[in-house]
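sorry to bug you again but im stuck and you know this stuff better than me. theres a chain ive been looking at and ive put its sequence and its fold in token form underneath. id like you to explain what the token line says about the fold, in plain words if possible. anything you notice is useful, everything is just below.
___
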Amino acid sequence: SHHGGVLDDVRDTFIYASIADSGTTAATWDQIFQFDRAQSKTDTTSDKIDLRLLDADPDSSDQAFRFVTEFTTPKGNQANGQVRVVDTGSDVNVEIDINGDNTADSVIEVMNVDTLNSWDFLL
């Protein structure tokens, strides 16, 4: 598990360098506590989940993930990789699909947060 700092006004960045950094089951996925969500896209002190070291399309050149509400098959030259946020009640799961098969290849549980948006990520 990882802890941010809701009360410190300092940005905490949670960096994922490999799809294997977090599993797909409750026993193997990462949990982030005290995540300070972005209040706007210009917020400079909110925490970030950094996925930039993950390649969203390993069969092509290095590409950024698509931030989506539902997993969808990529169209045209869109990257295979996609990220979505799923509300699980008092927490959210960040589901990462790296190969475009619409199945989560990695999950990050963010505790006591009701939603996240694209401003909370570095893609």
Q: What stands out?
A: The two ends are 21 Å apart (CA to CA). Residues 30 and 91 are 13 Å apart (CA to CA). DSSP finds no helices and nine strands in the chain. The chain has a mean pLDDT of 89.
